[in-house]
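Reading a protein record of the kind used here takes only a little practice. Think of the row as the fold of the chain written in a discrete alphabet. A record is reproduced here so that you can trace the correspondence yourselves:
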Amino acid sequence: MTQDSLALGELGKERGMAAAARGVGLVWMAEARTVIRKVAREQREFTSDHVWAAGLARPNEPRALGAALTELARAGFIEKTGKYVKTTQKTRHAAPIAVWRCKER
């Protein structure tokens, strides 16, 4: 993999997350951040499955949750642990998902 292809991949990821966030709107993104903060403070480690289980309404674009998680990571509130577990979401077919932790308590 060349540096150029890696940069293009990162750019595509950024654009995709931005599009997903725009697709769900500001109100849903604010609610997602609120639920993520609550889950992060209550659990030592958590995944997107925990956020959904906490009652976050499912938008028309569920990938927008990744944008909300990334936003809070960039703000320094959460971070990835480097661990992955299989999701319990049926539609995701046991795909690996990141495990996160709160950096603030």
Observations:
- The helical segments are 3-42, 48-53, 64-74.
